[in-house]
Amino acid sequence: MSSTIEDGGGDDDDYGGEEGLDDFPIVGSAQEILDDKPSASSSSFDFPAEEEVSFSGKSENYCVCFIDMVNSTVVTSGLASAKLVRYYSIFLNATAAIAKNFGAKVIKNAGDCLIYYFPATSDPASNAAFSDVLECCTAMIDANKVINARLNTEGLPPLGYRISADYGKVEVARSATSNSDDLFGSTMNLCAKINSKAPKNGVVVGADLYRVIQSIPAVAELYNFEQVCSYLVGPEQQQYPVFSVARRQKRNIVNPFKVMPARS
């Protein structure tokens, strides 16, 4: 059973955050700058000479993924600082290792969230690359028991997480203080939005990735798909379905904490 969710038609900031400027009162010279009204303080406003984030002008179509811990604030509220650090370290390093083993690049982590993408999916004809996306996501789900066993041995509470994946155009940027690329655009925003629609320890994919997978029968037949909801997106409020994904055959997961040699 699926439901329809209004997206509002506009792009959200920070990978899908729902608050907008109207939710935060703006006072003083900041409001005058937005209104294009000069003031004594606004005349001295200058942008920094060196940009922290610079856009390369390069656009690519990539598969992007978000993995987000469930109820992490509640679960970790009683942990001492050292335990808290260890808790997040096990989660982030285990999931990052799995992502890298399937050819993904980690963009960033936000403590309870890891964001990564698959560079090889820039080639729409690479069936193996799109297979890796779903294999990676479902491997992370299968690894949950192994991760929780490690947490248990260290006296830490179990964790659950949700994974979302989608495919589409992104803008590539780079930070002046980082050697890694960052990605921006509606594909990133929507992938973040649909994450909450995944079941605990489950995976959802957006309609664009779903269509690509369905065009590869040898990959699609390995998974069960079920529409869980749809978003109304864009100025024309078009339906954008979201699907849960589960592997038809379970497998025994190898050590998720070991990073395999890089693929050639």
UniProtKB/TrEMBL annotation:
<protein>
    <submittedName>
        <fullName>Adenylate/guanylate cyclase domain-containing protein</fullName>
    </submittedName>
</protein>
<feature type="region of interest" description="Disordered">
    <location>
        <begin position="1"/>
        <end position="23"/>
    </location>
</feature>
<dbReference type="GO" id="GO:0009190">
    <property type="term" value="P:cyclic nucleotide biosynthetic process"/>
</dbReference>
<feature type="domain" description="Guanylate cyclase">
    <location>
        <begin position="63"/>
        <end position="195"/>
    </location>
</feature>
<feature type="compositionally biased region" description="Acidic residues">
    <location>
        <begin position="8"/>
        <end position="22"/>
    </location>
</feature>
<dbReference type="GO" id="GO:0035556">
    <property type="term" value="P:intracellular signal transduction"/>
</dbReference>
<dbReference type="Pfam" id="PF00211">
    <property type="entry name" value="Guanylate_cyc"/>
</dbReference>
<dbReference type="InterPro" id="IPR001054">
    <property type="entry name" value="A/G_cyclase"/>
</dbReference>
<dbReference type="InterPro" id="IPR029787">
    <property type="entry name" value="Nucleotide_cyclase"/>
</dbReference>
